[in-house]
Amino acid sequence: MKSVMSNKWVISLYVLPSLLLILLLIYIPIVLTGYYGLMDWNGIGKMKFIGLENYIELAKDTKFWQSAWHSLLLGLFSTLSLVGYLILSLILASKIKGANFLRKIYLIPMLLSSVAIGQLWAKIFDPTNGMLNRILVLIGVDNPPLWLADSNIVLYALFFPIVWQYAGFYIIIFYAALKNVPEELIEAAKIDGATSIQIAYKIKVPLIAGVIKVMVILAIVGSLKYFDLIFVLTGGGPNGASEVMASYMYTEAFSKYNFGYGSAIGFGLLVICIVATWVIQKLLNTKDVDY
């Protein structure tokens, strides 16, 4: 009995530092964000308690809901892009020639910072000297789009660098999951006359359903709180056409020095992410398959 109790104390001591870090870096900031949302504060002077005014204003703020819609659209695009990532992973896992080289190529964007990726794609999207518009002119397009300056297409243009940025992450996760599918099942399917497409659709994909569910959650929640690349490329412009919740929060807190309202936006973003995660888990109520 003594040894069991002592083991519990030892385990608790090992776990305590991690729990303290989680408390200090996650839960306390969440509580403080909700608290600051109750204040009228410029980030420097004295805070003034105003109750739920910031949250009531947030519920009526059309700019916030427009930015939330943009974030949801990015989440939808990111989820659809998972299909492409999965197909590429299936191809890489099928022992094609050069698979190792291709895996390394897909990981390159993960080695670059968001600022570097933003600068790279800003040059590509440049309306005058950008590579993309030069190609369009060469193939006969007279008036190529102003990708990042056109409010009608800027959000769709931003989707491409975001997909490119995270391709390596999702592909490597899917690839690792596919490599864990038992080879005996695949060989048995081949003996029964199954084609490569049938093996992928009826064996491999169902066996990694749990991983796909996690990737969908990561894609949607990650899109809801996405900030850095959009801030570097457009800053939320033009005229708020690419504004997302995180960039709107930044603008209110650090550009307008309205930290109370910015904190309310941040807390609203947290609530939306929690609700989105719960909804996705209910919609994708899959169970992991034991091999």
UniProtKB/TrEMBL annotation:
All residue ranges annotated as the ABC transmembrane type-1 domain in the record: 68-280
UniProt keyword Transmembrane helix present: yes
Membrane topology per record: Multi-pass membrane protein
InterPro entries noted in UniProt: ABC_transporter_permease, MetI-like, MetI-like_sf
Major location (coarse): membrane
UniProt entry keywords in alphabetical sequence: Cell membrane, Membrane, Transmembrane, Transmembrane helix, Transport
CDD domains: TM_PBP2
PROSITE patterns, per database record: ABC_TM1
Superkingdom as given in the UniProt entry: Bacteria
Transmembrane feature ranges: 12-38, 68-93, 105-122, 153-178, 199-221, 259-280
Intracellular or extracellular location(s): Cell membrane
Similarity comment text for this entry: Belongs to the binding-protein-dependent transport system permease family.
Protein name: Sugar ABC transporter permease
Species of provenance: Neobacillus driksii
